[in-house]
């Protein structure tokens, strides 16, 4: 009986180690764009670029845009539109009362500008790259559509482990 209990104990440890080794990081980071400055016309044209360069953005992270002092917007644009501060019509309004949250849907490089007045030309813009957990930046088409397959594997693993432990306990 003690031998069987020892084997079950070892099996539980092995299962826990395997589950830990195959688990993916699920907690997402939340970044307030501009930190305490928020999303506004910055004190210099490199402020948001410098801010983004100190961060590592992973798939699932969320960026929070808090407008301070006035109404701003968030436009997700192409590199050409970013470089030229092109006024685009597809924007998300950001009011001082109501922060805007953006979770990039895939890996790749994103270009963000404010199209209000000349805010972009004054430096209210930045680009950032989103990477998959544990890998370098990839293009948006390289990412699987969902994490459902990892959830299915985890669920199957849990069911098989429970069945095996129950079987060993009763026989």
From TrEMBL:
This is Phytocyanin domain-containing protein. Keywords: Disulfide bond, Glycoprotein, Membrane, Signal, Transmembrane, Transmembrane helix. Residues 29-132 form the Phytocyanin domain. GO terms for molecular function: electron transfer activity. The keyword Membrane applies. GO terms for cellular component: plasma membrane. Gene3D superfamilies: Cupredoxins - blue copper proteins. It comes from Fagus sylvatica. The keyword Transmembrane helix applies. The chain crosses the membrane at residues 148-170. Residues 1-23 form the signal peptide.
